[in-house]
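Purpose: get a first structural picture of the assembly so the mutagenesis plan has something to point at.
Setup: two entries, given in the order below. No constraints added.
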Amino acid sequence: MNRRPPIQFCSACGHPVELRIPPGDNRERHVCTHCGTIHYQNPRNVLGTVPVWGDQVLLCKRAIEPRLGYWTLPAGFMEIGETTSQAAARETLEEAGAIVDVGALFSLLNVPHVNQVHIFYLAQMREPQFAAGEESLEVALFSEDEIPWDDIAFPTVAKTLRYFFEDRRAGAFGVHLETSTPDAAVPGAPVPSLPVHTAHTEDILTPMLRV
Amino acid sequence: MNRRPPIQFCSACGHPVELRIPPGDNRERHVCTHCGTIHYQNPRNVLGTVPVWGDQVLLCKRAIEPRLGYWTLPAGFMEIGETTSQAAARETLEEAGAIVDVGALFSLLNVPHVNQVHIFYLAQMREPQFAAGEESLEVALFSEDEIPWDDIAFPTVAKTLRYFFEDRRAGAFGVHLETSTPDAAVPGAPVPSLPVHTAHTEDILTPMLRV
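Result (structure tokens, whole complex):
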């Protein structure tokens, strides 16, 4: 799912770039040796939905690599000019041929080793109608006991599905945040240097309780 | 806050690009006339925190354009290799000199006219220590009645602050999703074509209630 080409030349003027730390910055960037343009690289958002019909969820069998032949929730790269909800609805239509009403934000899963953030929304299918798009071999509705857990394409999709069924059983949907790590270390992958500690919401509510 | 240079040349081989719709795609991309590399453009995430100390929130006065001299929550572009929480903590340290424990996801605000998603986390300051970074003129703690509402740099920051104080008064923090639109139409800005309808969580919980 990574389609980022290497930066060797300046996309503004066509001259070679070099890696250096620009003034006022603290990390190496691709900087044009001719016009000085700094070419930043940033993580990308993959947006998708959990499309619901009755007690079933709509999954797509991937027609493209990576993970060709494995099952996924409809999802793909957010495009310029879109909101996150619009991207999620568009991907659901493109990959699964389903028109959905997009509901609550459901999961935000960091995948730093491939520089992606996967975001899924709950979505209600308008009708039990769907069709395989260009990137899908097959699209089908599954109830919880039919989910092909061993053939799910990506860990973020498996996690989102597990949270969905747990929350539905509990009668309340939450917002689920998590970081996915690779099963094996990826050679050359950047290693985040800043550990993040977790604050509890009560620490932040305390001032209110003191008023 | 937009630093995306125009794409005129291929960053992989240096030859000119042209705008065309690649096979199997449905929108125009910058495609290299020589090596065929497709150069996708995607929205970027701006990550920040609401840094809390007692009943106060930490704000930074911007030392750079856009909105130089206006107040903001510490926030900036997510970098390669980071998670959203790590980016939020790093920006808080860089811009405000404050070490925070990052808590719950608090707001996700789409800003499609500049191709950005602004994401803020609640954060607890470790100590009442802070210092202006390279991109800040001044950093200060504000209680609710001291917030300089007329001098806030960006609508997404004002909205996040208003949600914060409302939620704190209510005694429960939510996750707030919204789309910001420009006050005036931006010439040449892409217009999202797919309307998004909203599903209610009850529609999705219904199957559980029927079981």
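Chain A has a mean pLDDT of 89.
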